[in-house]
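Annotated sample (chain length 652).
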Amino acid sequence: MSKNIESHLTEERTFKPSKEFAKNARIKSMAQYRRMHKESIKKPATFWAREAKELSWQKKWTKVLDWKAPYAKWFVGGKLNVCESCVDQHLTNGRANKAAIIWEGEPGESRTLTYRQLHREVCNFANVLINNGIKPKDRVMIYMPMTPEAVIAMLACARIGAVHSVIFGGFSADSIVDRLEDCEAKAIVTSDGGYRRGGVVPLKQNVDDALKKYRGIETVIVHQRIGTEKAPVKMKRGRDAWWHDESAKAPSTHKAKAFDSEHPLFILYTSGSTGKPKGILHTAGGYLTGTYTTCKYIFDMQDDDVYWCTADVGWITGHSYITYGPLANGVTQVMYEGAPNFPDFGRFWKIVEKYNVTIFYTAPTAIRAFIKAGNQFPEAHDLSSLRLLGTVGEPINPEAWMWYHEKIGGGNCPIVDTWWQTETGAIMISPLPGCTPTKPGTATLPFFGIDAAILDENGNECKANEGGKLVIRQPWPSMLRTIYGDKKRYRDTYWSDYPGQYTAGDGARTDKQGNFWIVGRLDDVLNVSGHRLGTAEVESALVAHKAVAEAAVVGRPHEIKGQGVVAFVTLKAGNKSSEALNQELRNHVGKIIGAIAKPDEIYFAPALPKTRSGKIMRRLLKELVATGEITGNITTLEDSKVIQDLQAQIKK
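Output written by the structure step:
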């Protein structure tokens, strides 16, 4: 592993779960964890069959796993409807009148859906989809704010066997087009708009702009979230319909049909280093088993918990730990529509206090922003209902971990620092809160069924504190099945480094206790506020501007976002650098990709550092923005003066 991403972090502070927490936890001791983990690795069919039996199956499988690397089939021959495990089963197990979703909108309104009400809404919208010609395996794009209707739309797709593809509401029209073209979607479910920091995000308008370029959509169903005064929309006759109008015409009962365990459940796009988004395909039975089991053990979900994952449903965290895993566990969960700092940085803590949240799962990015905002915000609220904290999206730095532990958890709450990916479907490495000794900054140990290792370039397992590549050595139920429409890319991206072993693309190391420390990405994918962005995508957006000839994008450490986006731009002849152009380029990237991709800094340069063969030396640019200096070898550069000019500009 290259030196510039190897971590030399050492951390000796260790925190053990309290005896009181351990007494009531599902996994109460490290001996129990080791015994179950050993069984899950040595006898995976026995372990996963026992977990999967707790879900609702209409037909039992004949074989737990069919593995022909790199292709897996789990619970072969089994048939189920994912929606039954998430909703229907709770109508007969005593949870029918229990709150499933407690929702709060950014302006402050709230509503609660019981499991019975959620079932009625999902059945109704399933019929809406059927009435609009949606059939099993049709792709349905969902582009909505964080409202219960987003979850309802996902579950309704699952209920009728349609394949949903959710797009984060912060993405632009151009990003929508890319994804529509790749999955060849037949319908879109959207909203007139969504609230964000007091403003309105024009979701339907973005869809309309996207559909000027993509003609394959037959139906657009629009949920009215904002209202015509704040979010006027144009409805195209024969294509567009209001959710409430369609809902009024559809019955609220629907019998769930069984689908094969390997029936496609959803496609979720994640950035790739080539610039083309990757459509990660997950299937029904294995994915649901993975999300259900990780929720049960890692979040130690109990029947009286009030759980809150602050992610957006547009990301995999929202799929696995808002829509599918928690609902399969029958938990009560909070959903919040808006930003964590609106109207101020006390909003999250106000919600925790208001609804007596017991389990809180958020991103290190948010935690760093809360630290910067000041302790007065959490201190103004009663957070004593919390019993378990979690982090997701990127490694958490130790001091942020300590602040989270002390200021939010009151020193009493275990923290589950979770490592996983869109591709893995569910959490792979994490503490179990009732037994695992935790250290600030490490995701600790592999979950059940996960055979993780750190390998060097030759495939040898690294010793403690030696950096290498993180791999998974045997299949797990929630693993991706392929990249949609591109099996070769699937094999090349994840399975080509070490035959038969999944390469995560992250650098990592283990310490002497066996804890896994995630160091960072091995490719040129940025992790900005927990969101993975391909540098090639940002570079392509910059070069699409009429004034730009060439661009190189790298990440630099950012106190709040984890990584900031830094762009180096060469202008076409006749164009001059200026603050106005700087802002114009930032907005241009925001329009093409989304606001999260806007460069934090743009440096204008007459030329970019290149080798004599024409390759841009991003390694040098990364070092430059991180340290302000270049210590590496620059003899291969075509013109070393380019680096000197950039160095002077950055210092200035």
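Annotation: Residues 469 and 541 are 30 Å apart (CA to CA).
Annotation: Confidence is low (pLDDT under 50) at residues 1-9.
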